[in-house]
Amino acid sequence: MTVAQVDAQGRLRHFLTLEGFPRTVLVRLLDLAQHFDERRGDPALRHTLAGRTVCTLFFEPSTRTRSSFQIAAQSLGADVLNFDASTSSTSKGETARDTLKTLEAMGVHGFIVRHKDDGAVAALAAEARPGTALINAGDGRIAHPTQGVLDMLTLRQAKGADFSRLKVAIVGDVKHSRVARTDLHALRTLGAGEIRVCGPASLLPTDATLEGCTVTDDFDAALEGVDAVMMLRLQRERMEEGLVGSLADYHRDYGLSAARLKRAAPGAVVLHPGPMNRGVEIDDDVADGPQSLILRQVANGVAARMAVLEVLLGA
Amino acid sequence: MTVAQVDAQGRLRHFLTLEGFPRTVLVRLLDLAQHFDERRGDPALRHTLAGRTVCTLFFEPSTRTRSSFQIAAQSLGADVLNFDASTSSTSKGETARDTLKTLEAMGVHGFIVRHKDDGAVAALAAEARPGTALINAGDGRIAHPTQGVLDMLTLRQAKGADFSRLKVAIVGDVKHSRVARTDLHALRTLGAGEIRVCGPASLLPTDATLEGCTVTDDFDAALEGVDAVMMLRLQRERMEEGLVGSLADYHRDYGLSAARLKRAAPGAVVLHPGPMNRGVEIDDDVADGPQSLILRQVANGVAARMAVLEVLLGA
Amino acid sequence: MTVAQVDAQGRLRHFLTLEGFPRTVLVRLLDLAQHFDERRGDPALRHTLAGRTVCTLFFEPSTRTRSSFQIAAQSLGADVLNFDASTSSTSKGETARDTLKTLEAMGVHGFIVRHKDDGAVAALAAEARPGTALINAGDGRIAHPTQGVLDMLTLRQAKGADFSRLKVAIVGDVKHSRVARTDLHALRTLGAGEIRVCGPASLLPTDATLEGCTVTDDFDAALEGVDAVMMLRLQRERMEEGLVGSLADYHRDYGLSAARLKRAAPGAVVLHPGPMNRGVEIDDDVADGPQSLILRQVANGVAARMAVLEVLLGA
């Protein structure tokens, strides 16, 4: 990281990654997100960020994540500017830094940035002037910190605050997934009891990412007795790249069916960051079943983003 | 329809189609739209939907209809989220249902949906949770109910509330037109005196759609003595599909000129849903002439949408 | 011009061009922009345009200019509708006039219009009904009047209100630049002491545009003793059109480096309308150096647009 996201007083200046993130600050974010989750739609919240301008600055498109941030910012009373950097000045050869500095000069106080490159948002944060806050809405393969907050909030609501009692399985294309790495950072920070990582060898990282995890390519073994299963989306590109075989093969080996889910602990919960490939990594009866927290994750996403926005931009 | 748009108490839950729509509910919508038309810009209206979030969820693009709904929602104080489903998660293989459920979980209360398939919006409405309302902003060839409300409001303002005295001609590509079918439903519900339908045989439906209408391919005959002419847009695709000849031919046979319009009753009015193909289905001196209500339709479109939004989402 | 932008009482009805613009009205706009620049973020400003709807109607894309107008309008409390006319009804064959009249009927009070053709915005203004105001956000090669206001505001803040003492150089592709022509109009109106225009002969206009200017293709000579250097963006198309050689050649002859800037008067300031081609028309150490006012221009852009919106649409 080229810029400190937490200052000497423990105050958050930017929100860039959950790697090495202080436990106390994360727990404070979770508490605040829980608070917002319980107060959704309260008109008094409109004063929180009134007069503040927030810009979604997306160098790669994601309507879904952008919408979640937009609803979070609007419900706190902020003005929202959507800047699609993939079809703008950037494509005229302007640098990402100049786009940021330009919008900052226009009066934007907070940036929600998505970028395809690892560390791109941290690099931009280093260029921001004091008082401007950047939120990483996903960059490269490593960081998507608000996803980490919403996933931990979802687990905490379902299973309680003591993560040391929790066995969690993360399943699928871990190698290319910023969601997986972010959740790994968060689960370690909160002291999860056991983290199992499962996927075909071609989709598992070989570097230090999985240190301390139980790693296996056997999905049935990975599920045995876990309290939570975090499924990952399979990008279709992986087929074209030859990293996995057919969709049918993948589904047979790594698709979560109701039958398979029975191996998990009673009351185990299922998460998925969306959008889902139904019939590939997850079956309908699991996605829509009683153990699924997938829509809860979406609702928590707005609450988590409200918390981050409030901490960074509130008075 | 897979879901009831009106509940047992006659309250509107969704607004999906004017086919079989209760007359009393339609008249109430017209009265409310008239009320909003007279109060446009009144700042007190801002409280109507304050704190409510409305999402335009368009699976096929229509900037014009989207803008009308956006202005209507904003003028009632709602937050508006524009979700272009043709360039979003949907294109990553997510189902329309999952997109809807995701946005609903984010806190969207009302959806304004456009889709290319017949019945797509009603099918989505069946998936919505209680308290979520869907408005059909046009799907397939059958339903575009807010267009029906605005057209009836426009006729009522010009010709009075007694539709039984009215002779109306609907002209052009009725076969592919959701506007035409919606207006037919509304005119029947309000008891229009005579409905004439006119167009080349290749552009007229052969099913039960035109039951009870006077059908002809002779435009001059269709115009004779009518009180209102509802012109339809000719999609250029019809030429490519070989359903009509050249634009010049079409204009000669089915273009509304000032000379032709003289066949209608004195004081007859002209409607068109827009966007117009000037010089094809309508001439400049008619479109911009004293009998044209085309811009009145546009203004009424906002008032009609305000009425629907208020009924579905107001306190 | 087909429509008067200033009425008999000196009131602005539209803002179309700075060509022949009255000096008193321009100075009033500058004073008001200065006022807004000092009050940015004041919540009391929200009442200025509350209940007014402003539409950005862009027939050619420009996310940057659109964003500046959107922030200006929002900070005055207006509702903003973004209408991308390059992907809308217009592409279905609707005329620009019909698009305008349709949005006007929906309740839009002010239009911010960008178009590729000279005079397109003035032609549209002639079609607007009384009470509707149009702002030219750039059309053709001639007019971009809010850019002129922001550039003059920037010069005035740096160098004082007496433009007769000012030597200004405008450098680059003047031939194709609406920014250059607009600044020429404004500088003449404010009585700039000397205007030097510099660029390769292939990029300088040969008509009356440069009347009264000192014209040269020698950049070093043009810089000698000037108080302000206004650099223009080099569009990559100029290479493809054979109007300039390589980027390296252009940079050698017309790129502003720190060394070159020493020829200007002490305390000379550097302007650029953005987006910049760093390393082509301007070097990093100039763009980011102490004499650069480039981000000040961006901030002034919002203040200038607030001033224009307030004058045209305020109570």
UniProtKB/TrEMBL annotation, chains A, B, C:
It comes from the Bacteria. Pathway: Pyrimidine metabolism; UMP biosynthesis via de novo pathway; (S)-dihydroorotate from bicarbonate: step 2/3. Pfam families: OTCace, OTCace_N. Residues 13-157 form the Aspartate/ornithine carbamoyltransferase carbamoyl-P binding domain. Residues 166-311 form the Aspartate/ornithine carbamoyltransferase Asp/Orn-binding domain. Its EC number is 2.1.3.2. This is Aspartate carbamoyltransferase. It comes from Noviluteimonas caseinilytica.
